Amino acid sequence: MKPLTMSGKSRAPLPLRRQAQGRIPLFYIMALLFVLKMVLLRYFFYGEIAWGRVTADAASVLVLLSLVELLSPMKAKNAVYWALNAVYSLALFASTLYFSHFGSVPTYTALTELHQVGEIGSSVQATIRLSNYLYFADLIAGAVIGIVRKAAGGRRLTSARPVWKTGAALTLVLCATVCARFIQLGLPIDNELVESENVGFLGYQVASAIKSAEDNSVEAEGSLSDIVKEYDAFEAANPFSPPGLKTPVYFGSMKGKNVILVQMEAFQNFALHLKLGGKELTPVLNKLADESFYFPHIFQQIGQGNTSDAEFMSNTSIYPTGKIAMSTGYGDRKLPSMPRLLQERGYEADTFHVNNVVFWDRIKLYPALNFNHYYDKPFYHNDHFNSFGASDEELYRVGVDKLSALQQQHKPFYAQFITVSSHFPFDVPDDRKKIDVPASMEGSQLGKYLTALNYTDYAIGTLIDRLKANGMWDNTVLVLYGDHFGLQPQDNDPGEVTKQLGIPYDPRITRFNIPLIIHMPGETAGKVIDQVGGQLDIMPTVANLLGISLKDEKFVAFGHDLLNIDRNVFGMRYYLPTGSFFNDDILFVPGKGFDDGTAVSIRTLKPVKDFSKYRKDYDYVLKLMDISDRYVRALPKRK
């Protein structure tokens, strides 16, 4: 029989009450553990622990735990705390892997892409480091202690006594005020990495939600036509074409020709013309570059959607927002695109990818771009090249068969091939390897990467052979470009890469530099186009060759025709913070703003100390990306 209190209500036996009262409230234990895990996150993100900035993390943790203390019932408090600890640890673990792979601080919107993990399991596993599991050390220790106590016949642990309710409420109010101030100070910072470092990881999630709400309010303020007028006026005030140019160079030179775009997975430009042991790493692409327009200074601009964002840009010339994969966030829109423009001219537009079309929500993206057909995993024989299934050779076999049928119908086509054989972690089956890397690279990520690029190059050779055999080579413009970098920065020291390859390797410029080759039928004398450009510039350049005037079409392109400009400025975000830009001279990366930023010469790879003359470029890029974001949000949804 339980002892009664003066009010008649039962209370726990006195020994148990004394034991509970003698224990430290779980609130304090969890607060310490949660803050320590935030410190660990800071180390993984920033490579150091700035203890002066841990205040922001501690305040946000105390807000979270105060809510648990005030809202959870006493009987369930232990379970709630440990369940929250498990979820919290898993979230920080996943965020660390995300940052390690993408170089960006994830926001809550990244959760919308968690269903993609199964498709890239090998890539995720290759990212994990043993130290990442420290997030779960306390959970494992707690589980072991519980099992040992139970096996030894020990008493079940009693619930820890609660903290003073009024104290928890005061802590909540005080810490929420501190968090609000940190977030207020961080909101004006364009550099997402600097912002997250200042406001803390949890505060950064709140700041991202606030900015998203502001974006949505801006969306409601302006019509699509108003945004287009703003863009036209802005571009007119910032001309990039040489003065007096009336007819664009090469305009319509490839009018009526077929077009094939090959988006090469994780392909960096340094691989072209590189030799290993006296042998060319990319002999097929080298020959193409020598017979085509070759653009050696092109840089990636992808956002959260990675490869799918590259597809989006190459077809629309619209900036990714960096806040969500464009296929996921805007796959419900009617996107102005190259397929739409060419379909009006009698073309069929098809896209080819050996993976499932649901991956990165391409099942939404392709209708949004208005492709006539997409050919995904069921169309290919699975030769088990890697975790995606079919090889690039199989991709081209099926693709050329489908395009050959259009050729027989005298139907011009626009086709896009998305390669995957050089996807991270760059595993090429032994029977498919076409080159031997030096012993010093054997087994390293660098060696595996070069082997994968060599195979990608070989497979492109099979595509060309098939086009020639089917009578399409002499009537097809072939465009090849990389979607993003391949070598993971955390696994490849730039100095070691430089030593192994005998070429200068910059951790940003060389990493983000991708190839662009445009081969035109009948051309054998190539030309190197030195103009700096980005992925947004691919679509306007191809449109010019096909004789499509984007101005006459009233098509809003945020990139430029690289064959008809005398300078260029374009932004990059996500893998670099917002406000970063490339121009003909430098790569600029902001700090909290322009004045505390850094710049590196594109040509010499040396730091540029005085970059004050480029402030206009900084302001231009911020404004242009703002217009682009509002433009894509204002586009009509498909019925």
Top keywords for this entry?
single chain; 639 residues; alpha/beta; Alkaline Phosphatase, subunit A; 2 domains; nine-stranded mixed beta sheet; four-stranded antiparallel beta sheet; 10% strand; disordered N terminus
Structural topology:
Elements: H1 14-21, H2 26-46, H3 54-71, H4 77-102, H5 121-127, H6 137-151, H7 165-186, H8 192-199, H9 201-221, H10 224-236, E1 258-264, E2 275-276, E3 279-280, H11 283-290, E4 293-299, H12 307-316, H13 326-330, H14 338-343, E5 348-353, H15 362-369, E6 373-375, H16 392-408, E7 413-418, H17 445-469, E8 476-482, H18 494-501, H19 509-512, E9 513-519, E10 527-528, E11 533-534, H20 538-545, E12 569-572, E13 580-583, E14 586-589, E15 598-601, H21 615-634
Parallel strand pairs: 1-7, 1-8, 4-10, 4-11, 5-6, 5-7
Antiparallel strand pairs: 2-3, 4-9, 8-9, 12-13, 13-14, 14-15
Helix pairs in contact: 2-3, 2-4, 3-7, 7-8, 7-9, 8-9, 10-21, 16-17
Question: What does this 3D model show about the protein?
Answer:
The strands form 3 sheets. Strands 1, 4, 5, 6, 7, 8, 9, 10 and 11 form a 9-stranded mixed beta sheet that branches. The chain has helices at residues 14-21, 26-46, 54-71, 77-102, 121-127, 137-151, 165-186, 192-199, 201-221, 224-236, 283-290, 307-316, 326-330, 338-343, 362-369, 392-408, 445-469, 494-501, 509-512, 538-545, 615-634; strands at residues 258-264, 275-276, 279-280, 293-299, 348-353, 373-375, 413-418, 476-482, 513-519, 527-528, 533-534, 569-572, 580-583, 586-589, 598-601. The chain is an alpha/beta fold. It folds into 2 domains: 14-217, no CATH class; 255-567, 3-Layer(aba) Sandwich (Alkaline Phosphatase, subunit A), CATH 3.40.720.10.
